[in-house]
Fold each of these.
Amino acid sequence: MNIITKVAEEKIRRAIENGEFNNLKGKGKPIIFEDETWIPKELRSAYRVLKNAGCIPPELQLRKEIISLWDLISTIGDDKERLKRLRELNFKILRLNMLRKSPLSIEDFPRYEQQIFEKIIG
């Protein structure tokens, strides 16, 4: 969850506690979450099949590997092994940046994201 989403969720939580959502139109009705309008029409069927098969885009898989590797590095005591894993991490980050065509966001580093969230919410 990115920092903007966390801030929004916190504000929503506070509004719920204050009763600001008690009399909204549509309360109690189901929300449809399967909005595929952002997916081009010619790709919707393929995306649905992949989703049902449990496949994820390469960017998401690589992001998962980066987070796992980041956590692993913090537990390694051997300097030589840590350096090897850091090089692997740098390579994966480079690949992810090339796939995304944009730099990593703060959500890729949850330790910092939580600190920023706490500063914004106060």
Amino acid sequence: MRAELIADQSRFHPSSLIPHPFAVLRVTEIFRSIQGESTHAGRPCAFVRLTGCPMRCVWCDSEYTFTGGERMEVDEVLARVRAFGCRLVEVTGGEPLAQREAFDLIARLCDEGYEVLIETGGYVSTEGVDERARVILDVKCPASGESERNHWQNLERLRADRDEVKFVVADENDWEYAREIIRRYDLEQRARAVLISPVWDQVDLQELADWIAASGMDVRMQLQMHKQIWGAEARGV
């Protein structure tokens, strides 16, 4: 089966997916590290980074995932993950949900008892993601250049007991945009956590901390722990 990127999520409905025993994914890298973001930061984690993304955020730190990748059957991916011995697994990208076969991979990981995190950029619908997985939804702010493509129904599917929502902010305008979306969709109640993440090396961290503290909102500032440890250009960490 050909690993297929979804060019237009409006034409895609996950309920139409039929699991295939020899489903093939395009995979950029599989590695073990510690989780660098979200409320799971600091935990040992196995990462499956899939290839391809329909978005082009101007500050993207994983452009190397846009093309290439190794063709791997789902069973091959599972074997690699098992070898790490980590019970926490993140499926990321690129945009992992842009490959139809990713939904099968997620379900198979859940079947094997893994705690599964899905890091998704929010353009592709999360409908059809296995309910046992935990979604970490990245809402695109204006400075990303992609805020017009947010799939807002994804916010309505967030579950307060497990899903998280993230805003990557590059400036004060992004912060004000995030505040409005948090208010409009009642994300403090709808999500397990609301994460505010600065674009690497573009935001004054003290200013961002002040904005968050002064807001009185139940949100969490996060820094990318893996970049602080291994540097912004390191891969496979």
